Amino acid sequence: MENARIRPRFELTDRVAIVTGSSKGIGEAMARGLAEFGAKVIVSSRNQASVDAVAAAYRADGLEATGIACHVADADDRGRLIEKTLATYGRLDILINNAATNPYFGPVEGLTPDAYHKTLDVNLTAALELSSLALPHLRKSGHGSVIHISSIEGLHANPNFAAYNISKAGLIMLGKSQAREWASENIRVNVICPGLVKTKLSRALWENEQLAQQFTNMIPLNRMATPDEIAGLAVWLASDAASYVTGGTFVADGGMLG
Ligand SMILES: NC(=O)c1ccc[n+]([C@@H]2O[C@H](COP(=O)([O-])OP(=O)(O)OC[C@H]3O[C@@H](n4cnc5c(N)ncnc54)[C@H](OP(=O)(O)O)[C@@H]3O)[C@@H](O)[C@H]2O)c1
């Protein structure tokens, strides 16, 4: 019987990772997790000062990170993100498409084309485009891993969130499609669906105490998550510990969807 060791497979030493939308929230926690397991991490968001501050905080803790600003819906920014990553660290092994927006809250019949397209551009199309730009470098990596951050809203429609729900459902099928096509090159693609996580994006759902209570009552663990509770799943999926895992959809929702 082969006696393979498991722990070293979680190591990300010498791997280079981009995490979009990682100046705060779930993206920041995932970026830190990858860096703690040895990856060189590109911290990215729209604001250069914010990503510089996060990268500096990681470096102060002995981790390796660089901040590169990128509005994921801007094609030039996406190109620069990949180019600068290559110029800084010389390779790319892991891409986490995490940045998202949710500009419209209201009934589906009131969703304007503008709000719809803005949501889809940031949440879904950017993930497709960035993955395609990353592909030649993930091929060279030999163990490329792409992770799309969807949501339980990609599996279960939340009323008044139609564009967001659609974008998150699209990410699940984008990931499955890429996984089928890229498996032969050992590039794995997986999707994480968080439940309610206490961040700026979800503020409207937890700032109001009554509404927050309504939501937590629907969660078997009876609380919302903190961003660090999503990071372990991302580290595992990024690493060789998940070498046989591709095309998967992984829910971390405190039991909410049952
Ligand atoms: N929080 C939840 O309950 C929850 C639940 C399920 C899924 N999710 C998903 O988890 C992911 C992270 O959400 P979060 O709750 O951690 O959000 P968050 O705390 O608001 O953080 C969002 C991050 O994305 C960046 N960002 C926003 N728009 C961007 C753009 N156009 N281009 C590049 N970066 C952008 C923000 O920085 P800048 O503003 O500086 O650009 C920030 O770093 C999203 O995909 C979200 O849909 C969240």
Would you mind describing this structure in some detail?
- This protein is of the alpha/beta class and 258 residues long.
- The protein has a single domain (10-195, 226-251), classed as Rossmann fold (3-Layer(aba) Sandwich), CATH 3.40.50.
- It is 44% helix and 12% strand.
- It has eight helices and seven strands; from the N terminus they run βαβαβαβαβαβαααβ.
- The protein has a seven-stranded parallel β-sheet, sandwiched between helices.
- Helix 4 runs parallel beside helix 5.
- The longest helix is centred in the middle third of the chain and has 29 residues, at 113-141.
- It binds NADP nicotinamide-adenine-dinucleotide phosphate.
- The site of NADP nicotinamide-adenine-dinucleotide phosphate (NAP) has 31 residues, from helix 1.
- Residues 20-27, 45-47, 50, 70-73, 98-101, 122, 149, 151, 194, 196-197, 199-202, 227 line the site of NADP nicotinamide-adenine-dinucleotide phosphate.
- Belongs to the short-chain dehydrogenases/reductases (SDR) family.
- This is NAD(P)-dependent dehydrogenase (Short-subunit alcohol dehydrogenase family).
- InterPro entries: NAD(P)-bd_dom_sf (IPR036291), Sc_DH/Rdtase_CS (IPR020904), SDR_fam (IPR002347).
